[in-house]
Each structure stands twice: as structure tokens, then as C-alpha cells.
Amino acid sequence: MPILSQVRSVFPLLPMSSCCSSATCSAESTFPAHAKSLELCMFSDPERLSGRQQPQVEIRHVQTLSETCSPKEKHWLWFCVFASRPLELHNILNQNLECSLSLFEGLKVYRGDDKRLRLFRPLLNMERMSKSAKRACLPAFDQSELLGCIKRLIEIDQDWVPHLGSGCLYIRPTFIGTEPSLGVKKPNRALLYVIMCQAGSYFNTELSLWADPKYTRAWKGGTGDCKMGGNYGGTLFAQQEAGSYDCQQVLWLYGEDHQITEGGTMNIFLHWINEDGDEELATPPLDGIILPGVTRQSILDLARKWDEFKVSERYLTMGQLCSALKQQRLKEMFGSGTACRICRIGSIVYEEKTLQLPNQDKHSLSSRIATELTDIQVSG
């Protein structure tokens, strides 16, 4: 019986493709999922996760794939899995440290009611990571083979996937430039590594957001639609200011009309009666400043499958939100993401006022979506 089983057909997980068997793969930047140079160090069972909050920082194994390229050759070297230890990089000169030449992904593996392990729509993560790598001028990789490598890592640490509660195993593939250089240029060396840690619920309560247009998370022509490391470090200062208003996250606005883009690291959804009197689930469009979230796409797929109300990807502004609140047309506002799953938004601090948002509790659309997604993730 395979370790990883397929989830429902609406969110397919394709079987692992055949991979080469040697430790070194040449040409077209591929690498083996079953390399012979496999270094293992098994641990005793850790304490099981049950209801604890993310993040859990204990890491048991690290999976690495190194890439070198020159005008005459380009190949991946040495796939290995080793007991967690510091990565060895040049002590001073490193493009990742100097130029933030890094990107990452986040996905989860769940243990179902039938004890089988399931990855949730991992091909979407591989596709997004490939797009981010291209934008960062990092080398191309075979998406199906990287997924095969991740599956191999999960097999090694399968006993670490929580058996109880809502916990799961969080998987963080990371891709960095490692050339020892001070120059701002396309790297000739790169490292792709994967780490995993146990994770629970990111937020346990409704969120309060702080919205101020003086800070911008992303802009047209930038990298807001890629999961680049630099996108996140630049948000910390605004996040700190949000805390001074007793808010947990930032509601990122864009443009003179204060377009709603993202909330913290979440995609944003409004469930309301729109200006035309129609019930609608709306989220900002993928116009280059919005991260194409896997959970976001799953919500849109589910809602369109239900075909019970209008589902839109369109621009939303704070003016529209304030009007809907005043006219009592807003049903709820919530965020989505791999880390937070589905998270209700209870209030927004905007233009020195606190906007209290409605909460339909167990009968809300967000609760229904969360239940359906959880059923898919753990029941198959």
C-alpha cells in the first residue's frame, strides 16, 4: 500500500513519476528522487502534536539538492537526506545573504482517518515554485521529480506526521543562490533543500487587521505573485506598527483607491450582497501583486462547483467594503492560506476608525468551506 494516496478527484494528486537512479543527473536540470547517495539518520518517535500552535521548530531531516552550471555544463549534484544540522554556505560571500536571492514554498501532509498520508494539491506548489525560480533567475527543475523527492522525505519521516488532533506536517522546500560573489548577477550555483516540521493551527481566534496605504506589500511589475523571501522580510516593519494598534496582521492596500490585496500572508475573500443585489464570493484578481494561493484556488473551485452564488475575481476597495458595512450587505470577510487555512476577520482599523465585521459563526460560508477542505485533506 502506498504511503501517499490520492485525494478527491476535484483536487488530484498524480502518482510519482519514474526517476533516474544515479546520484548525479545530467542535462536539463533534473535530479533523482531515489538517489543512491542517500544518507539517513533515524530518530525515535517525537512527542505527538495535538492542538499546539504553529510554529513547531524541531526539524529531524533536511533534504538537499545542489545545482552548478557553467557555459558548457549544467547539472544537479548529490541528492541526500541527512539529520538536521546547519547548512554549510560561504561564511561571508553569498548571493542569498547579500541579494535576498531566495524563494520557498509551503505545503502540508495530513494523516487521514484511515491512517494514510495525503498531500494537498502539491502540483500547484511545484508549479508556483517553478514560476518563482524563473523570476529569480534560479535554475529550472523538473516539478514531478522534486515532488518525488519530497515524497521520499515524507516516507523517511512518516511516523512524525501527527496521529491526533488537527496537526499535520509542514513542508518547506527552499531554493537559494549560493554563489560566493558580491556581484548582482544570475547565480552559477544554487541549493534546493526541503525541511519539515510539525504544525498546528496558525490562528485560533478571529483576526484584527490594520489597514494603512502608506505601506505597500507589492506593486505592478514586481514579485508579489512569487513566493520570494524578500517579499516577507519587507513586511515586518508594518507588522510591528499593526501591533501598536492591537492588530494581529496588516491588511495590505494598493493604489489611490485603496484596493484590498492581501491580509498578512493570506488571500482575502468577501462574502456579501454586492452592489447589484447578488450574493457573491469575491476575491482580488491575480494581476501580478497577489500570490496565487493553493487554498485560494481550492476555495474558488469548491464555490464554483456548488454553483449557489456568484463567484468573482475582481478588484475590491476599502470604499466598497465600508459601503457594504454601512448598508449591512457584508456577510463576512475571511483570509485563506496554507498556514492559516481559513481564518475569519473580526475587525479592521482603517483611517483611525475600527470597523467591526459581522460574524455568522457556525453558519458562515467560511465554516462550510473549512469543513469541506478539512474533509478532503484527511478523508480523501
From TrEMBL:
GO CC terms: mitochondrion
Q: Which SUPFAM superfamilies match?
A: D-aminoacid aminotransferase-like PLP-dependent enzymes
Q: What is its EC number?
A: 2.6.1.42
User: Is Transferase found in the keyword set?
Assistant: yes
Q: Which domain of life is it from?
A: Eukaryota
Q: Which GO terms describe its molecular function?
A: L-isoleucine-2-oxoglutarate transaminase activity; L-leucine-2-oxoglutarate transaminase activity; L-valine-2-oxoglutarate transaminase activity
Q: Which keywords does this Swiss-Prot/TrEMBL entry list?
A: Amino-acid biosynthesis, Aminotransferase, Branched-chain amino acid biosynthesis, Pyridoxal phosphate, Transferase
Task: List the InterPro entries.
Answer: Aminotrans_IV, Aminotrans_IV_CS, Aminotransferase-like, B_amino_transII, BCAT-like_C, BCAT-like_N, BCAT_family
Q: Which reaction does it catalyse?
A: L-valine + 2-oxoglutarate = 3-methyl-2-oxobutanoate + L-glutamate; L-isoleucine + 2-oxoglutarate = (S)-3-methyl-2-oxopentanoate + L-glutamate; L-leucine + 2-oxoglutarate = 4-methyl-2-oxopentanoate + L-glutamate
Q: Point out residues bearing the modification N6-(pyridoxal phosphate)lysine.
A: 227
Any one biological process term the GO annotation gives: L-valine biosynthetic process
Question: What is the required cofactor set for this protein?
Answer: pyridoxal 5'-phosphate
What protein family is recorded? Belongs to the class-IV pyridoxal-phosphate-dependent aminotransferase family.
Under what name is this protein listed?
Branched-chain-amino-acid aminotransferase
What is the native source organism of this protein?
Xiphophorus couchianus (Monterrey platyfish)
